[in-house]
Design goal:
Layout lengths: L33 H12 L2 H26 L5 H14 L5 H9 L3 E9 L5 E13 L3 E5 H4 L4 E5 L5 E10 L4 E6 L22 E6 L7 E15 L6 E8 L11 E4 L4 E8 L12 E5 H7 L6
Antiparallel strand pairs: 1-2, 1-4, 2-3, 3-6, 4-5, 5-6, 7-8, 7-10, 8-9, 9-12, 10-11, 11-12
Length: about 300
Amino acid sequence: MRKPALYSRSPRGPAMGAGAAAVDLPEPAPVAPPRRWRTALSRAWGSPRVLWSFMLMLALALGVSTWRQQQAGMRAPTQKDIDAAVRHTLATHKLPSATARAAAKIQPSVVLVRAFAQNKNGEEQEQGVGTGVVIVDKGVILTNLHVVQSAQTVKLVFADGSESGASVVGVQPQHDLAVLQAHTVPDDLQAATLRSTHDLMPGDGVVAVGFPFGIGPSVSAGVISGLGRNFKSPEGTQELGNLIQFDAAANPGNSGGPLVTLDGEVVGIVTGILNPTSHRTFVGIGFAVPIESAAAGAGLPPF
């Protein structure tokens, strides 16, 4: 709503526009005799308010003068002084590592995903644990399709410890991705920042945050090992392409979690690990779906 204009409370006389007629001004009043002026002045000096005002102005003037003298005598800092101050700060204040900063930025958006199904006795039983990442603060979450594919109930645990049920509202089988909608959303839920993968290079540092074997949130760090990789699922039923290869430790339970840069921005969704044995443990090669594909599955605009 527009505010009304503010006007001065001082009285206003008639306007003198370009076409206004001249107005005869009255003769100036005669000046009071000097004796009356001196009498008024002596009365003013006798007022406590005037006397205290004068003393305050005098103190202020002295203070400003002293400050100017001190400023004139101060030496401007040299580069040597600045370097010494920086070294002192670094020696006395431990700064968090780049990995710690990235993990701290993404952690409020990381979600534990638990999938349940009924057993033969009709009892609800946990059948899988994975990770999800919030991409819209109204409770839209990305995870792996294989985490929730056969679940009858999906439950979430947010970073603040609150819990919620969730529904699968979208799937991308070709990328092993699922989009979840939380039924209850924390008031302070934070969405992750997504980053294009177009300028990623092998050797760039990355961090994976998730719940390996349900433990977490856990943090692991490494580098991008390669781009445009293919990966076949352990069952051999599906092959995924155009994946990010990375060497940050990942294990069952990391599936669906975010792979982030050292700036804490999501570039991929962890989807699988390569292991030639049947132990399903990490041997140094993990794969993530580029975030462009994952975001498209959630209906987000392209980068």
